[in-house]
């Protein structure tokens, strides 16, 4: 009996791994398959499915979208924070105040993409950085797009309400300037909200926009992809950067073929498009 249970669990792990790869590009190792499987088991129980195959049938049927959302939520790891890897926001400031200063003075649109934004902290950190650097009239031309595969995270990002505990201790003055506080929570002033737009998007699918960006954050997401998926993603993202634009990646991520992609390293896990 125990052996059967064990065999079933192993089989389910492979199924979970295949689904993860198919719907999100996420490459689960043994440990992560196991934790995703635990979460999925909980979903199966909540929705009274007998086994994972019944669940898969629902996901693959037309009305399965809602369930697919849940399986994606179970697979993803959404850890994030405001001003995480703070140096990138210093680079963004330099990018706007020096490299794209002339474009901003000419009132051109400036686009920033937080491409796996989780619950929105990365995009709002970029918005506060921009708001600190530019006058109100120039802010009208700044657009910050936040996207994530996890619909629940995008709902939270759009809601824009966070716990005060999420404010980094050394940055409370900055938040005082840009936020409204109530009870143990806070949200952003309207002109900060106006800078950001959130959409649900799987980064390995087709992108429903043609625009190029001046800065792209793609941090702590390729750690879940295999090498082939990651290499294709770096190439696609780079092709959407303006010359002089910058891409910021997670501290344990690397773009090994940066020269071939026309990138130059400019600091800690950051690259500038030079060709
Ligand atoms: C660890 S969080 C990183 C959040 C943020 N970039 C940061 O560094 O703080 C990884 C995020 O990537 C998202 N993600 C995973 N696979 C994705 C995909 N294929 N397309 C878009 N987002 C994805 C997850 O939903 C999760 O919110």
The structural domain count equals 2
End-to-end Cα distance: 62 Å
Number of helices: 12
Percent in strands: 15-25%
Gyration radius, to the nearest Å?
Answer: 20 Å
Q: Provide the CATH superfamily of the largest domain.
A: Vaccinia Virus protein VP39
Keywords: Methyltransferase, S-adenosyl-L-methionine, Transferase
Domain CheR-type methyltransferase: 1-275
Organism: Gluconobacter cerinus
Catalytic activity: L-glutamyl-[protein] + S-adenosyl-L-methionine = [protein]-L-glutamate 5-O-methyl ester + S-adenosyl-L-homocysteine
Fold and architecture overview:
The chain has two domains: 2-75, Chemotaxis Receptor Methyltransferase Cher, domain 1, CATH 1.10.155; 87-273, 3-Layer(aba) Sandwich (Rossmann fold). Mean pLDDT is 89; it is low at 1-5. It has twelve helices and ten strands. It has helices spanning 2-24, 30-46, 52-60, 65-75, 87-99, 101-105, 121-133, 136-139, 151-159, 172-178, 190-193, 227-239; strands at 110-114, 142-148, 162-163, 179-182, 185-188, 196-200, 213-218, 241-249, 263-267, 270-273. α5 (87-99) packs across α7 (121-133). It is globular and about 60 Å long. The longest helix is centred in the first third of the chain and has 23 residues, at 2-24. S-adenosylmethionine binds at residues 24-26, 76-80, 84, 116, 118, 122, 148-150, 153, 202-204, 219-221, 224, 250. One of its GO terms (molecular function) is protein-glutamate O-methyltransferase activity. It is an enzyme of class 2 (transferase). This is protein-glutamate O-methyltransferase.
